[in-house]
Design a protein that fits this description.
Length: 413
């Protein structure tokens, strides 16, 4: 494969950063921090960006979050006076999960009950590496690169408050990219989905109320557990009978709590469900549909049913032109055989969706699976880790996409 000279330079610089990437990643892995508690992680990010000479803003006033960080790298390369200066954003998430690590790694978590089990330590290290690489190439950058280090992706979401705080402005971000490490694909394999890529993820909290009684005399009460069972079955018809077969929806009740003892008729049951949709109109219709079924079934069984519907992350819609730039850049760097374009979206959720609503966005997957080394555990597993050899791949792709975008903008559709 013939790699253009500038791309070869970016690849070489990224590979040279491997020892530092490993140091950052392993330090972050040993000291994981939960959502909106990423104070030490944030401090490390700020130190690195300040040392690189970036303009750094952090904390609640600047980012709308307690720990968010924004770093601005201003290129000094030649600019076309006939057009505005372009700015591209690169986003990384920093938080860990409330999981007790069981990997046995020498750099395993030192914080009991906390673990980087979704690769955010790698995402942060890759973005720091990209900032390092591009800071050494300022004279080749004809615009700006903004680095977003975001808290709380695994919880209530740090992307939306950061955007509402104005991080996409001054200068205005014209495109934004992100990656997610995975142990599904072999190390260095890339995947992306044009258009809708992930689902919107909302929460339905269902409360079923009956009347308590002695279990030997059920006719004296209204059994909330029996009503809840009928509600569970009826709600499955949302997907099987109310949704078009080509309109993907997932409705999963993940928790159910109710009852006191084996001889007591329960007076209340509480259930929580995740509701995943791809189409905006489908998402908008779900609260009414769920409420109708819950209340109707409960009324038939003399119980009462209430639904609290909590909106979550929207669907991530990748911009096709930015996807084309990422795909073409990855093919130029690594070869077309290393890039997979997915036909179907996934039903997971990602708060990068908010960034992609604020500007043309593209999140792509970066494989970090290494079966020979036993690196196969899925994300959110206590045995999860990833192949660190994937990190320079992410750095090189981030850096080259940024350089090309600042030079030429988005390709034609």
């Amino acid at each position: 494969m013939s790699v253009p000279a500038q791309a070869r330079d970016v690849l070489a610089r990224a590979r040279h950063l491997m020892p530092q990437l490993v140091r950052w990643r392993r330090h972050l892995h040993q000291y994981p921090e939960l959502a909106n508690e990423e104070f030490e992680t944030s401090a490390l990010v700020q130190r690195v960006l300040n040392d690189l000479g970036l303009k750094v803003r952090a904390g609640p006033e600047a980012t709308g979050t307690p720990t968010g960080v924004v770093g601005l790298l201003e290129g000094t390369g030649p600019r076309d006076a006939s057009r505005p200066v372009r700015t591209i954003g690169i986003r990384a998430d920093m938080d860990c999960l409330p999981i007790q690590e069981k990997t046995g790694l020498p750099f395993a978590s030192r914080h009991p009950g906390k673990m980087h089990a979704c690769g955010h330590d790698g995402h942060t290290a890759i973005s720091l590496g990209t900032a390092t690489l591009l800071a050494g190439m300022r004279s080749q950058l004809s615009g700006n690169v903004k680095f977003f280090f975001q808290p709380a992706e695994e919880a209530d979401g740090g992307a939306d408050p950061m955007i509402r705080a104005g991080v996409m402005e001054n200068p205005r971000v014209d495109a934004v990219i992100a990656l997610h490490l995975n142990t599904i694909q072999p190390t260095g394999q890339l995947s992306l989905k044009y258009g809708p890529s992930t689902a919107a993820a909302d929460t339905a909290i269902l409360t079923i109320r009956g009347t308590g009684a002695h279990g030997a005399w059920p006719h004296n009460g209204v059994d909330a557990i029996t009503a809840a069972g009928h509600v569970i079955v009826a709600l499955q018809t949302l997907v099987s009978r109310e949704m078009a077969p080509l309109d993907p929806v997932v409705f999963t009740i993940g928790t159910i709590r109710g009852g006191y003892a084996n001889n007591v008729i329960a007076d209340e049951v509480r259930m929580e469900a995740t509701v995943r949709t791809l189409k905006r109109e489908t998402r908008a219709a779900m609260p009414e549909r769920i409420t109708r079924i819950v209340k109707g079934v409960c009324e038939a069984l003399r119980a009462e049913g209430d639904v609290e519907y909590v909106g979550g992350y929207p669907s991530l819609v990748n911009d096709p032109r930015l996807c084309r730039l990422v795909e073409d850049t990855a093919a130029a760097l690594f070869g077309k055989d290393r890039v997979t374009v997915r036909d179907e979206p996934g039903m997971g959720a990602e708060d990068f969706a908010y960034f992609a609503q604020a500007a043309p966005g593209c999140m792509f997957g970066l494989g970090a699976r290494n079966e020979a080394e036993g690196i196969t555990a899925p994300g959110h597993s206590p045995f999860y880790t990833f192949d660190e050899a994937a990190m320079p791949v992410g750095v090189a792709l981030f850096a080259e996409v940024a350089r090309r975008f600042l030079q030429s903008g988005l390709p034609e559709a």
